[in-house]
TrEMBL record:
SUPFAM superfamilies: P-loop containing nucleoside triphosphate hydrolases
Family that this chain belongs to: Belongs to the ABC transporter superfamily.
Domain ABC transporter: 5-250
Keyword Iron included in the entry's annotation: no
GO molecular function, one term: ATP hydrolysis activity
Keywords: ATP-binding, Nucleotide-binding, Transport
Gene: sapF
Cross-referenced Gene3D superfamilies: P-loop containing nucleotide triphosphate hydrolases (3.40.50.300)
InterPro entries in the cross-refs: AAA+_ATPase (IPR003593), ABC_transp_ATP-bind (IPR050319), ABC_transporter-like_ATP-bd (IPR003439), P-loop_NTPase (IPR027417)
Lineage: Bacteria, Pseudomonadati, Pseudomonadota, Gammaproteobacteria, Alteromonadales
CDD domains: ABC_NikE_OppD_transporters
Protein name, per record: Peptide transport system ATP-binding protein sapF
GO biological process terms held by the UniProt record: transmembrane transport
């Protein structure tokens, strides 16, 4: 089976006048290498400031790398491939409340990417909106709702619906469960896994929660200060971590689990 998404020697530096850099600061990401196949989940873990979210932005095209390459179905993604990337690599952000426009209905929120990226007429777009709402466990009638009418869990489902409505191949999820309470978090994790099985999606999953990481991921990439310090299959990383930083993360997770028993 061929790789769905692969990254080769990807690097990024914020010392070239990037918009968001603070004066006098320098951060170097990479080199980063990994690959996933359809139906696989790669978890990216590490402390705040390790470069996890920056890597996510590079994957979806919100930032451009200084060197290296990203391949989708063995096709190299160039900067001018933004339309191809938008259709095939979609992102779910951490704070669904901030990413959903409070002044328009869910129908308008979900219809917008269809208007921008497809030739579907209004009736076909509405059918697609209703189908996608059902896929994420909501009702077709939810298309008339506004953001404030939804629970946190429902908002995250809408964010997921917006990500999958263009039938992408890869979902990049940046801390998608951080704002959810444990019971809602569990339901959303199960929903993600069901969608992955049904749609054959590749997932890039960024999280601090090693319990969820262990539950849903096939592979793990461990980052520290912009560098990949360890990578491998999830079971191997948890049972036989090699890097000292990885060992500390796993030990902290095990201590937390022991404390809950």
């Amino acid at each position: 089976m061929n790789d769905l998404l692969s990254v080769e020697n990807l690097t990024f530096e914020n010392c070239h006048g990037k918009r968001w850099q603070r004066k006098g600061t320098k951060f170097t990401l990479g080199p980063v290498n990994f690959s996933i196949r359809a139906g696989e989940t790669l978890a990216i873990v590490g402390a705040n400031g390790s470069g996890k979210s920056l890597l996510a932005k590079l994957l979806v095209g919100l930032e451009q790398p200084d060197s290296g390459a990203i391949y989708l179905n063995e096709r190299k993604l160039e900067q001018y491939d933004n339309k191809h990337r938008v259709l095939n690599i979609r992102m779910v952000f951490q704070n669904s409340n901030e990413s959903l426009n409070p002044g328009i209905t869910l129908s308008s929120i979900l219809e917008e990417p269809l208007k921008l990226n497809t030739n579907l007429d209004s009736q076909a777009r509405m059918r697609k909106v209703e189908q996608t709402l059902k896929l994420v466990g909501l009702l077709p009638e939810h298309r008339f709702f506004y953001r404030h009418m939804l629970s946190d869990g429902q908002r995250q489902r809408v964010a997921l619906a917006r990500a999958i409505i263009l039938n992408p191949q890869v979902i990049v999820a940046d801390e998608p469960f951080a704002a959810l309470d444990p019971s809602v978090r569990s339901q959303t994790v199960n929903l993600l896994m069901e969608l992955q099985r049904e749609l054959g999606l590749g997932f890039i999953f960024i999280s601090h929660n090693l319990g969820i990481v262990r539950h849903i991921s096939d592979k793990i990439l461990v980052m520290k200060q912009g560098k990949v310090v360890e990578s491998g299959k999830t079971d191997v990383i948890f049972h036989w971590p090699k890097d000292e930083y990885t060992k500390k993360l796993v030990q902290a997770h095990q201590a937390l689990i022991s404390g809950q028993d």
